Amino acid sequence: MEQEMIQVTVGGRQYSYPKDCQYLQIAGDFRSHYPDDIILVIADGRLRELHKHCRKNSVLEFVTTADQIGQKAYERSMTLLMLKAAYDVADPDSIDRIRVEFSLQQGLYCTMTGKQKPDQAFLDRVTKRMEELCGQDVPIRKRTVETDKAVKLFRKYGMKDKVKLFHYRRVSKVNLYSLEGFEDYFYGYMASSTGCLKYFALYPYEDGFVLQMPVRSNTKEIPPFEPYEKLFHANRRSTKWGDMLGIDTVGALNDRVTEENIHELILVQEALQEQEIASIARTIYEQPSKRVVLIAGPSSSGKTTFSHRLSVQLKTLGLRPHPIPVDDYFIDRNKTPLDEYGQHDFECLEALDVELFNRHMLRLLAGERVQLPTYNFITGVREYKDDRFLQIGENDILVIEGIHCLNEALTKDLPKENKFKIYISALTTLNVDEHNRIPATDGRLIRRIVRDARTRGTNARETIARWASVRRGEEKNIFPYQEEADVMFNSALIYELAVLKQYVEPGLFAITEKEPEYQEARRLLKFLDYFVGVSGENVPMNSILREFIGGGCFDL
Q: What's phi and psi for 190, nearest 5 deg?
């Protein structure tokens, strides 16, 4: 009997394949067409794993490890490989748990509890086992089970975090992944086998270890391990906050929402943040030479609200803060440099009048009266108004906010002894479960979607479409300078995604299958489905979260 054939379209050209062949087989014929490893496929607009079967004429687009979606799949698959290898080489019952805590530069910071310690000798054995599994190209198997059965399995495996997580899931079935008998749940699609997971390194660090992986710009080389120590300790402080509150995973948060007083949790979390802001203000106060406070951070980190709350704390100490947004020093739009895509690059340093900014700040520090500019974002022109004069005295302090504030090139003429630098970011340390982290970028993207829809008339699709450009600007202009900060502040709130869920879902549901942003919208909706929602009415008026959902006391 003649085998039935189907037509698949790749790159605008048609090819014939047997009906019901695996996407993996088709991908094998195109590996030489891509400089990076193929890890997933988009079939007729739907993201699929390579072990799935192609049953009809389809248009295919291969996803590689250089794509954002592919990189996430690589990270998840590598986590499964690391866990399998660690339990393989450890003595029986010597590991209580391995916890993936947060991202650290190009890797994941993990901790272990139990008799086995993650020292160099142990990590060398884990590395060797991982390399063996990669060389054998072991299949990563997937099976779908009923949610109730999955919960029983998790309870049997001692995975209490997943038992809690799936107690709140409304879906009837769960996808489980296994590697040579080691079975776990992972949020998102995975590689089909270990053969493409060749690039990694393990390093002991502090009381845990780092699983280092390639970056999208160079997927076949491990970058050097150069951790940002200040950023690491900021993440660790936030993790300890969560542990102190008894909330380290989404399941634990859902328990608090449904079984206890969520309003109290919100107040405690807000009080912890206010305590840290007050401590930063005290540090500034105790250094009288620090006349210029510089605040920088990536998109949707809450810089504006933070600057207001810091100013309030500075006032309680007898100082008089004066907020100055660096954006008011934009050059006129028609003179703004263009990026590689021919668009105005408002995020490069050259988009600012750096000379004028330094001249004004030096005059203010000298006690002179200065007329400050205001940038008109509608006309794209810098303007001067009669009520925008400033002169500062002995107890006055400048609070300057902008993405370049940690870059010495922005404040090149200001004396270093006068500057106090603050880096703020939403470092999400609440994870889905012990092995599935929540990327900080997801939290910031959700914040931005909510804010843009409320204040800028930008829908969710438009915000997602621009996000890649925003991220490129952050990688270039913000992250390289974060270790220059005197202090770091984490603006993420342990409860915030349970609140943002209600605000962001309608916009995500409005994105249709025909739009390029559909896959990302679907991913975020699936992610938010883990959370039990919380009303925004409980959020205090001075909360950083109000910058995004509205109703705050700072008129943002």
A: -125, 165
Residue the block writes with tokens 């991913």: 523
Q: What is the rounded distance in angstroms from the CA atom of residue 133 to the CA atom of residue 197?
A: 9
Radius of gyration of the chain, Cα coordinates, nearest whole angstrom:
25
Tokens 């006690």 locate to 367
pLDDT in tens, the chain (556 residues): 578 999 999 999 999 999 999 999 999 999 999 999 999 999 998 999 999 999 999 999 999 999 989 999 999 999 999 999 999 999 989 999 999 999 987 899 999 999 999 999 999 999 999 999 999 999 999 999 999 999 999 998 888 999 999 988 888 899 999 999 999 999 899 999 999 999 999 999 999 999 999 999 999 999 999 888 999 999 999 898 888 888 999 999 999 999 877 899 999 999 999 999 999 999 999 999 999 999 999 999 999 899 999 999 999 999 999 999 999 999 999 998 888 778 788 888 999 999 999 999 999 999 999 999 999 888 889 999 888 999 999 999 999 999 899 999 999 999 999 999 999 999 987 899 999 999 999 999 999 999 999 988 899 999 999 998 888 889 889 999 999 999 999 999 999 999 999 999 999 999 999 999 998 999 999 999 999 999 999 999 999 999 999 999 986 5
Q: Which tokens go with 418?
A: 């006068």
CA atoms within 13 A on the CB side of 277: 25
**Alpha carbon distance 307, 62 (integer Å):** 44
Helix (H) or strand (E) holding 467: helix 460-477
Cβ contact 332:388 at 8 Å: no
Where are the strands (E) in 152-207, listed by range? 173-179, 182-185, 201-205
Q: Domains of the chain (ranges plus CATH)?
A: 5-64 (3.10.20.30), 69-225 (3.30.980.10), 231-549 (3.40.50.300)
Backbone phi, psi, residue 546, to 5°: -65, -25
Run of H or E including 291:
none
pTM of the model: 0.90
| E strand map for 21-123 | 21-22, 38-43, 46-49, 53-54, 58-64, 97-104, 107-113
Six token digits for residue 149 = 């059965």
* Residues 25, 29: Cα–Cα separation, whole Å: 7
Torsions phi, psi for 312 (to 5 deg): -60, -45
